Model the fold of this input.
Amino acid sequence: MTDAQTLEIRDLSVGIGPHDVVDGVDLSIGRGEIVALVGESGSGKSLTALALMGLLGGAVRQTGGRATLDGTALDLGDDAAMRRLRGTALAMIFQEPVASLNPLLSVGAQVAESLVVHGRATRREAWDRAVEMLREVGIPAPERRARQLPSELSGGMCQRVMIASALISEPRLLIADEPTTALDVTIQAQILHLMRRLRDETGTSVLIITHDMGVVASVADRVCVMYGGRIVEQAEVHRLFADPRHPYTKLLLATIPRMTGGHKSELFSIEGRVPDLADWPEGCRFRTRCPLADGKCAERPPLAPPGSDPGHLAACWHSDRVEDLT
Amino acid sequence: MSAVGNVMRRSFVPRRGGGVPVGLFVAIFAAMILIAIFAPLIAPYDPDRQNLLGRLKAPGTEARDVFYLLGSDELGRDLLSRVIYGARISLSVAILSVLLSGCVGTALGMLAGYLRGWVGIVVMRLVDIFLSIPAILLAIIMVAVLGPGFVNVVFVLALTRWPRYARVAYGQTLSVAEQPYVRLARAMGAGPGRVLFRHILPNIIAPLSVVATLEFGLMVLFEAGLSFLGLGVQPPMASWGAMLSVGRNYVSNAWWIATFPGICLFLLVLSVNLIGDRLSDYLNPKSR
Done:
């Protein structure tokens, strides 16, 4: 962990109606660190990110928790205050790069958008910066491309455009919600490489949200695994892959298809399915699907270091027995 | 050259299954706009100059140095000049009321669709109420209260017709507001005003413009209807509807007074509606 924390979240909760879909999430991201938030659909990882941006809406509400950005408290519920931060200190990119760009505006204008919105540059300066930014993210002939519409660009290019539009404001924290999910594998690798390079150059902290362990392994410094709206394990990336201490993480890693098992070996899957919002069990939320579950799991396990490494946390009563799982 | 030729042929020559060639109607509509703009240059006589010795002259007759190409009306005014000047009234009432109702309706519909909540409920129930009252009846009641006249007619038409735009704008805004690019714009710090005008409005303008063309034809007819009932623009200004109304009294001995403005109305509304139809076909990806 880095000493200077860009973002600290304590006890963040998000509810839909009476149900907690994000339940007491603690998260910190150091300066220039890439943290991956991993989980299945419905684990609350995207809502955690939207809550951080102050972009929850409709029936989804933040029900608790606080956050600080570079030591300054964020009022996530105050839309006007958050709007000043969005596009300046905070930036976010999404999956579906093509649909995320306005079909009727030139990509240059969309990259320049956040500078114009916040009045940080004149239209002409913003345009020049946008062209420069497009070059930065590896778009060839940026002067020409900037004048084109998103429909004239490929999906990978659109994702580069979106990254450019997020980074032009030099944010302190970039949140990337499944940035590579809609892209094919070679483009994925390029985009991930780009994100690492830009992190190295600008020192921006990155929170990357994904369900793809391959993405995690290739880009993240640290990983938080979410299940049922809670963080169940958190560790430095190599540590997590080498020595998972939560049964869910262990099983999740086991589901990654391997080239070694021979072509007849069946793909591994975790028993059961993610329960509905209303059916989450008391105590540990994974216990209905966990092979190690016993009576003690009816009590909620704390997120605590299972071993000597203070940076490796797991929320399991039986973290010492996880190794034996296959 | 051949490309231009192809476009011309496609626009004007009927094809099997191709529907009515729309170019013809675009031409009629454009001609009427030009006639309205340049009325003083085109009209042979002052439309208000009376000539009591040349009353109710048949088309193509001459009386006291005035040649009545389309005949004269009950006060001996040249019908051709009056029809030409009448285009100004009919078209400007329609254009202004479409603009006014379009802006008001679109703004309210977008607001309702973007904010939803109680704003959405209030606006959309108001729309339902307005749409449940027969529009022409509503217009007659309001003119009766406000009094007739050019400005009031425009105002009343806008007031009765804005719900059409509001309903379309509401539905479109609801769906566009959920688009990822709107979410991205908000994530970059765009406020509600910027989201609405820069990101939502340009993406919903196409269906609204179809509504506007169809409404345009209706506005021409509404104005004609109000003028026919004596509730529209007041003499000596004359729209085509007002001329129809007068001509009705003389239809047995001077058929031309009602006929020529009637033909103009018919052609204008027909061409605007067909243009609107074609526009909606063109903008609807399913039927392209």
Remarks:
- Chain B has a mean pLDDT of 84.
- The interface with chain A takes residues 179-181, 183-191, 194, 198-199, 202-203 of chain B (CB under 8 Å).
- Chain B has one domain: 3-287.
- The beta strands of chain B are 61-63, 66-68.
